[in-house]
Design brief:
The chain contains five helices and twelve strands. By secondary structure, the chain is an alpha/beta fold.
Length: 274
């Protein structure tokens, strides 16, 4: 699959990215996920992004676009995301049908390229999906693809995007659903000298830590939120969110998380999973 080349809008060459994640859309837009109508919450996030009028270069959507694996849910996603009028790139999550996404999205206006190249940075979208299973697994061909892209342009900084965060987050139940071969992933990726960041979804909460000189970043969901460091499954009261990232020519990254107003979307709290 051919890479997509982009020229950033900024004068200094910085690349600005909007990250959305874990939309969990249904074929029926009136359905809710544990009390949150995910179609409405995604619409509200996009409304807020448009109101901010932040000049970003592309949208990265890091998995779980769907909740029910349906064609209609992906059609809904494409219609909603088109309102941003920016290039959109994605990767599958554990609630997605990856093969279906790659078959249909190009026709729906969503890019299927797995490598986005700018003058100073490149972005590599990897697939950790194990169909219909909560945990992730990264195949060796995905790692080899990342290495191929990175070594092809050794002067560029590299950001790898993958649904499952390849680190534990200190939440007992959620840490059972991480990337199950994260040690293999991290060992391999840290051998690639120009990798600066790993950007993920899946954990439905804000996360930003540095491990062996690489930033590991995850972002709140556009739907429900998980309570950080919870022992058992627990929903947080925080509102749906999104993240902007500014990738600077020197390899550093500035990033900010925003959320919808408090109590705009309130989930059920007396649940034990989904």
């Amino acid at each position: 699959m051919a890479p997509r080349y982009l020229t950033p809008n900024s004068q200094d060459g910085s690349v600005r990215v909007l990250q959305l994640t874990d939309c969990h859309l249904f074929a029926d837009p009136n359905r809710d996920l544990l009390g949150v109508k995910t179609s409405e919450s995604m619409d509200a996030v996009i409304d807020a992004v448009l109101e901010q009028n932040f000049d970003f270069d592309f949208v990265a959507v890091t998995g779980d676009l769907s909740q029910d694996y349906s064609l209609r849910s992906y059609e809904h996603f494409a219609q909603k995301i088109a309102r941003l009028q920016k290039p959109v790139f994605f990767l599958p999550g554990n609630h997605d049908d990856g093969p279906l996404m790659y078959r249909i999205f190009d026709k729906l206006g969503v890019n299927v390229a797995k490598n986005v190249i700018t003058p100073k940075w490149q972005y590599i979208f990897l697939n950790s999906e194990v169909y219909a299973v909560a945990h992730g697994w990264i195949l060796r061909d995905q790692l080899d693809y990342a290495a191929y892209c990175a070594h092809r342009s050794p002067s560029q900084h590299v950001c790898i995007l993958v649904h499952h965060l390849p680190l534990l987050v200190g939440s007992r139940w959620l840490d059972t659903q991480t990337m199950h071969n994260s040690d293999e992933f991290n060992t391999y990726i840290h051998r690639i000298n120009n990798v600066r960041a790993i950007v993920s979804g899946h954990i439905h909460q804000e996360y930003d830590e540095t491990f062996r000189d690489v930033r590991y970043i995850a972002t709140p969901s556009t739907s429900i939120q998980f309570t950080p460091r919870s022992v058992n499954f627990s929903l947080d009261y925080l509102s749906p969110g999104w993240r902007y990232l500014t990738f600077k020519p020197d390899g550093s990254i500035d990033t900010t998380v925003y959320r919808l107003p408090k109590d705009q979307f309130s989930p059920y709290t007396d649940v034990e999973g989904y």
